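Q&A log
Question type: sequence-to-structure
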Amino acid sequence: MNPLDQSLGRLLKAAAQAPKPAPEPLPFNVEARVLAQWRSTAMEDEFAWLAGLFRRAVICAALVTVLSIVWSHRENTSTAAGVVALANYEINTHLPP
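Response status: OK
Response body:
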């Protein structure tokens, strides 16, 4: 080791052994203001946007379900009349006069 490294090492050792000053406490009014501001801030919910998105997705899914049920029911009622007419025609053609 060169002399500079030795002297730097001694200085760093001495600095590490030096007593550390104790931090002085905050004045009461500063502490009270900090705590009051901390308590007054509203807690932010990290998943609030996710809950809103989920709510919209459920509403859209329910709307799609209702529309598909209505469309299916309408489709069945319009084809049911044709099926009934076809069945009546078949019955009428197979019956002897």
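Response note: The helical segments are 3-17, 28-40, 48-94.
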